[in-house]
Amino acid sequence: MIDMHCDVLMKLWEEPHKSFSDDDLHISYNKWLNSPVQVQYFAIFVPPETSQDYFQSALEMIDLFHEKIIKPYPGIKWVQTKEEVEALSPHEKGAVLTLEGCHVIGEDLMKLRTLLRLGVRAVGLTWNNVNALSGTCVEDEELGLTTLGKAAVKTINEYNAFVDCSHLSPAGIDDVLELADRPMISHSNAKAIYQHERNISDQQLKQFFEQKAPVGITFVPYFTAKDGVNIEDLLNHINHMYELGGRDSISFGSDFDGMSETIQGLEDIEAVRNLYHKLAHHYSSDDVYRMRYDNAVRFL
Asked: Is the pTM of this model over 0.90?
C-alpha cells in the first residue's frame, strides 16, 4: 500500500529528542516494518504559528528526513520516481518527500525551485492559512490562485511534480485543474458523505477522476463522520467515490501523526491491515490493487 500523507517530520522537528524508533508515533520504524504500507509520503509542514523562519524550518525538516529516517535504516530507501518505487524489494520501504503549505516560500519562487531540486515530489499550495498563492478551504474560499500561485503551478509542472489540492480553496482547485499537469488530493474525503470544509465536493472530485488523478482518502475521524468513527464510516467515503467514477483515482493519505484522534481500528500504520482486509471483502483484487498502490504511483 502507498500512504500519500503523514506528519512525522513535524513531530521530529517539534521534539528534537525524538527518534523515528519512538513507538509513541503513529508511524515509527518498527510499526512501519510491521505494516502493509510499502511507500510512505513524508510531508514538510511548518506550523504557521511558529516564530522560526519558515523556509529555514522546511530545510531542517528535509535534513531530519535524511538524518533520522533514511540514513539510520538501510531498508528504507528515498524514492522519487515510479521506477524507483517498482525497484523496491519486498522487504524494503520507500520514503517520498512532499510539501504541505507554500507559506514557507513567501513570495519567492526560487525557494520553491530549491525544494523541488531537493526532491519534493508533491506540493500543497496552501495549508489552512491564506498565503501569497491562494485562498484556502478555511479562509477566503472564493479566492483562487493569484498570479504568483499560477506561476508556482507552472514551476511545479517543470519538475514533473504533483500539485496537491488538499487544504486549497474550491476556487483554487478549479484553477489547478486547468493548469496542473499532475493534480492530486493527498488527504481529503467526500463532502457529500460528511460536510466538512476539508472535504471535496462531488463536482470537483469528478474532475480529478476524469484525469485519473490520485485522491487520497484520509483517516482523520473528524473529516469522516460525527461520532464513534470506525472503518465502516471510512468505507462510506470510498464507496461513494467509487460509484462517482473514482476507480482509477482512489488512494490513501492517512495524516498519521497530524491528528489528535484516530479512527477505531486505524490507530496507527500497523492497523492499516484492518482497512486492507475490509477492502478485500468489498472490492475485487484488481480494484484493491488500484486503490492501495497503482493509482498513487501511476504518475509519480
From this structure: yes
Contacts of 281 (CB under 8 A, 6+ apart): none
3-state SS, residue 144: coil
Domains (range + CATH), the chain: 2-297 (3.20.20.140)
The Cα-based distances of 85 to 73, 132, 192, 293 in angstroms read 17, 34, 33, 10
Among residues 158, 169, 160, the alpha carbon closest in space to that of 133 is found at 169
| φ, ψ dihedrals at 236, nearest 5° | -60, -40
Cell numbers that stand for 79 in this block: 524514492
75-94 tens-digit pLDDT: 999 999 999 999 999 999 99
Q: Is 146 left (phi over 0), alpha (psi -120 to 50) or beta?
A: beta
How many Cβ atoms from other residues are within 10 Å of residue 83's Cβ? 9
Neighbours of 161 (CB within 10 A): 25
CA gap 40, 292 in Å, rounded: 12
Grid cell in block for residue 148:
504568483
What is the bridge-based pairing of β-strands 250-252 and 215-217? parallel
